[in-house]
Every structure is written in structure tokens, then in C-alpha cells.
Amino acid sequence: MAERGNDDPTAPATVGGGQTAATAKIPPVQLPTRSKDGKEEVAAKQLDGNDPLRLNAASKTTIEQQRAADWDIIKKLMQHVWPKGDWSTKRRVLLALALLFGGKLLNVQVPFFFKVIIDKLNETVQAPLDMTNPNTVYVVAGSAIIGYGLARIGALVFSELRNAIFANVAQRSIRRVAKSVFTHLLALDLGWHLSRQTGGLTRAIDRGTKGISFLLTSIVFHIVPTALEITMVCGILSYKCGPTFAAVTAVTMAAYSWFTIKTTSWRTRFRKEANAADNRAATTSVDSLLNYEAVKYFNNEKHEVDKYDAAMKDYEKSSVKVATSLAALNSGQNIIFSTSLTVMMLLAAQGVMKGTMTVGDLVMVNQLVFQLSLPLNFLGTVYRELRQSLVDMETLFNLENVDVKVKDNPDAPPLRVTGGEIKFENVTFGYHPDRSIFTDCSFTIPAGSKVAFVGPSGCGKSTIFRLLFRFYEPQSGRITIDGQDIRDVSLDSVRKAIGVVPQDTPLFNADIMHNIRYGRLDASDAEVQHAAQRAKVDQIVSNLPAGYETKVGERGLMISGGEKQRLAIARLLLKDPEILFFDEATSALDSYTETELMRNINTTLLDNHRTAIFVAHRLRTISNCDVIFVLRGGKVLEKGTHDDLMARDGLYRSLWGSQSTIGIGQGAGEGEHIHEHEHSVKDVAHSDVQAQQSSVDSPRRP
Ligand SMILES: Nc1ncnc2c1ncn2[C@@H]1O[C@H](COP(=O)(O)OP(=O)(O)OP(=O)(O)O)[C@@H](O)[C@H]1O
Ligand SMILES: N[C@@H](CCC(=O)N[C@@H](CS)C(=O)NCC(=O)O)C(=O)O
Fold it and tell me: 422-660, which class in CATH?
């Protein structure tokens, strides 16, 4: 039986706070969050997640609650196995059950045939051949032998058929649950996602779905068949050999199960410790190897090796305990089983002596009970994995219960963009209640204009986009696009109307073509290439051996920041939304490319009269905007054109001043900075030219 090996106390996904689905009001999903120092924080209670020992320590109500929650999950799962109205699945299940019953029936026939063979041959041995009819013996014993073989083959074929037929039901359930959880995850708000680790989430789905598979298969292939076989064996024994045999079997099964469950619960701790140590070792080694350069910079190889070895030492210790406790479990199980088998043989031997039973009966009893040992040998493993599956599935189902904060109103009409005027009206917002980013903030972005937001780092420039895109809802006030409150129109239409080049471009681990096409999935190759041209991606692509088929690596790590930004712009040009948001979109580009790109963007905007919002630290990039908003302290401090703002002795002018002189103060004696100074003076000069040029390129709209 395959080990899933996921009974790990540091498992990232488990039921939070030890609560159960049945009792928790707030869905107790708990995935690891990263603490400030980058360590994974796992709530202490999580350690209890799948600990059967908890059942001993916990209060009675907790056991009951846990049981109720477990039943809840099994019931939920059974809805997939017996789905309302889905007769094709139901037929499959019924067929699988019939095969199960038939298979077990055949299986218990095997000892009967054995008995007949022995008895018949025995008769022949005991009585001289001429006393009996040898033909009858041959016929009976021969057909029993054939029956024996056929019964064995039949039992196996039935069981395999059952597996094949049920596989479809199990896999479909997994797919349904996984799809519904994944859909829900994508619907959850950004805030929720930012506070979770993606790795933890995917593992939660992975484990949860594996849990479904394990639970279903172990119930259908292990627990139910074994229980059925035990019942059949007890019935046959009491009918054929008297109730004593049945009683011995029943007591043995009870003792065996009790011992197995207790011992498994006890030894699960060692497995958890081993897994935790294994995880620690893996984390340490991955961390060290990923930060190879850092290790070398500070000659810390020994420190890393020691850390790794400490985890491996723990792993070694607990692994030894796993092995020794397994030996104890196997020995105990064997002692119980063999004792019972011996007792039954004794009873049968007495029966034979008394003449109430035949030698064939003795063999049959032995065989009937012995056959049970096969599935029972994995009882402990099945029990442990079942408990783990229940915990994993609880986590999975609880993910589905997480409330979606930013909800789409089902009856909401789509947003109709007529010019792209954006209004923030008395907006108050903070990510945390005790720290406000905007306080009663109001401003208007005129339709079709090019505006910029500037201000100190962290003043909330990117937050404007997140609110506009409805990643978050303001605590009070409203945001409108062309007079329509964005909360009253459909979320999908708002997001379709707005495009963004974010600070950090999210790229998929696919080729450049796919990544640009992501802006509009149905775009043709020619359209993608055209957008790439306008975003100056074609220059990069022409230098790459694989051209548009070059993979960008996980999260685009294989291409430079500037190249990433150009890809993001190409994507946006392809999406061609009515409202565009450029969040430091050109910060990683050199001045020349930036100017070129900005001119391209300007032309595009001009052609289509799009509303465009720019956020930039390099003020020269945005100096030609129609309106510049200077944010500070959660409000708009100044607003106007570059010239208006320069005419005033305000924050903008001082920011501009500091940017054009930044190199002088810092650069004394440092070649690098002097160079930067020269550059920035040149940049300002350049920006003036650019501003003039842009005003020629893009006459101000009313
Ligand atoms: N998801 C979040 N949860 C909590 N706080 C956040 C979150 N996102 C941003 N913040 C905080 O809100 C503030 C405003 O963030 P925002 O990204 O809008 O700033 P910004 O003006 O764009 O900054 P920068 O110029 O550095 O990009 C920052 O102090 C930031 O730390
Ligand atoms: N008889 C025991 C052990 C069965 C067994 O050998 N299980 C296999 C997996 S199918 C195993 O490797 N177990 C390791 C362990 O339990 O530590 C039981 O009922 O659990």
C-alpha cells in the first residue's frame, strides 16, 4: 500500500485553532503565513490536526464534535458518490457494490472447496479403493479442485473489475471538488491571497484531493469489504461449526482492531516527528542551496551543514522509533491473530476427535480465518491514513467556506464607459483599521486625460488602483467611473475596463508569446507581435535565439526588470482597456527606452482617447501630464499641471528640486554619484524637451 506520508505536524494546511467545521463560525482554515523574519508560522493547535492521541487527551465534547465533523465530511463526500439525479454514477456504484458482494462470496467459497477436496481425498485414503466408487471420488475431488481455482480467479477478477468501475466515480468526485475549490480560491479577495502562502494553498488542495481519493478507496476497497468478509465468516462458522467458532472470531477481530488502533495512535507521533524533521532538513537544504551566494559571502558552510545535520539527526532518531514501533505493532497483531487461529484449530481438532467435524472442516476453519489476515494486516495503516485524510479534507472543504469579501452583485448591470471620468468621493480606506491610507479623500480624473499621482513612498499611490479595480472596498465614500458607482456595476465589467502595468509584473512560466497574449487570450499572433512592437518587446525578442518562444522562467525571473515591464505594457496594449494605470511602469528602463516607450504609449492613448493614470517616482516621466496630483497624509495636497505646481512653492517643487540635485549632495567624491548627477541633470533637460515634444505629440484635451 502506498504511503502518502503527509501526517506531518508542520503540515501547512490544517484545521485552524483545533476547531471543527461543525462548530466554527469563521471558517477555520489555517495556512501558514510568513512572519516578519520569513519563518513559517504554524499555529500550535495545528499540531493536533491529525493526532489520534488528541482523542485521549481531549474532553468528551471535543471528541463528539470531531466525530460530527468527520461524519459531516463523509456525508459531503457521499453526495459525490451518490449524486442526486446522476444515474450513470449511481449505476456504477451499484455495479461496484454488486461486484464487491460477488467477489467476497466467491472468496469464502475457496475454503469450502478446500474442505471438499480434503474430505474426499481423505475418504479415499481411509477406505480401500474398492469400497468406494473411485469415479465419484475423482469427479467430486476433481471438480472441487477446479472450483477452488475458479473461485480464486473469480474473486480476483471481481475485485479488479470493481476497482476499475469505481475509479471513475472516485476520480470524478476529486475533479468536482477540486474545481469548485479552485474556482472559489480565484474568487477570493487579494487581501486574503496576500496573507496566504501559495505553496501552502496548493498543498492544501493537493492533500485534500488525495484525501478524497484515499477515503473513498479505503472505504470501498478495504473497510466495507473486510467488514463484509468478517460478517460472512462469522455467519458461516456459526452455521457450519457452531457459535463458539464465530464467537472466537468476533472476539479476535475486536481485540485485533482495538490493539491496532491504540498502537497506531501511539506510534503516529513518531511518524510526525520524523516528517517534521524531514521537512526541517529539506527546508534547510533548499534555503542554503538557494542562497548559495550568501553562504559563500560569509563563509557559513559549516553553519549550514550543522543545521542540516541537526535536522537529519532528529530524523534518524524518530525514524528508528517508527521502525521499532512498527515491529511492536506487527508482533502484537500477529500474536493476537495466531493465538486465535491456534484456539480454533484446537477446537476443530477436538471436533474431529469427537467425530462432529471432519479434517476438511479443520482446514476450512483455518483457511476462512486465515484469509482475513490479509486485509487486516493493513488495518493500522488504513486507520492512520483515514484520519489524516479527514483532516486534509476538512481543510479543503473549509477553504470553500471562506467568505468572499468583494462580492459581485448578481443583478448588477455592466459598467458603461463613456469617457472614462473617475471620481473618488470622500474615500476613507486603510488596509488595517488602525492605519488609514486615505482619509476623506476626493479627486476627479477628467475623462480621457493623462494624470499622474506623485508623493512620498507608501502614501497610497498604488492603493488608488487597488480600490479602483475593487481588490479592496473603501471603508466609506464612493468611487465612480462615468458617474456609476463601481460597487453597483458588475465586477467583471469594471475589471475589463481597467488595465494596469503593475510595479512588479506577474508573468507565467511560459513563453513570451503566451505571456503577452495573456492580455487578450483570443488575440492572433500578428496582433501579439504588433503589441510587442509598440512596447519595444520586439527588440528583445529579435536578440533571443528562441524568439517569441523563449520561456521567461518562473515568475519571469529569467528576464530583466525592464524587459518584464515592456512585456507588461505589450500585454496592456493588447487588452486595450478604456482606463489605463501605469504604476512605475517604466522605472526599470533606461532613459532612452523610457522616452521611446512613453511616446508610444502617448500616441496610443491619443489615438483612442483613453484615461491614463501614471504613478512615477521620476517626476520627469510624468511632467507632461494634464493633471498631477500630489498625495500626502491620505489626501490630495496639491494638484495642477507641472507648470502650475512649479509656480507654487509646494511639495511638488521641492520633490522636483531634490530629484534634479540629488546627485550633488551625495556624489561628492563618488564617481558613481557624480555620474548619476550628470545623468539626472541631463534627464531633466531631456524631460523638458520631451515635455515640449509630447505637447506637440499630444495636444491637451479639454
Ligand atoms: N495588502 C496590504 N496590507 C497591508 N498594508 C498594505 C498592503 N498593501 C500596501 N500596504 C501599505 O499601505 C501603504 C500604501 O501602499 P501603496 O502601495 O499604495 O503605496 P505607494 O504610494 O504606491 O508606495 P510606493 O511609492 O512605495 O510604491 C504602504 O504603507 C503599504 O505598506
Ligand atoms: N501491520 C501494520 C503495518 C502494515 C504495513 O506494513 N504498512 C506499510 C504500508 S502499506 C508500511 O510500510 N508501514 C510503515 C509504518 O506503518 O510505519 C498495520 O496494520 O498498520
Answer: alpha beta
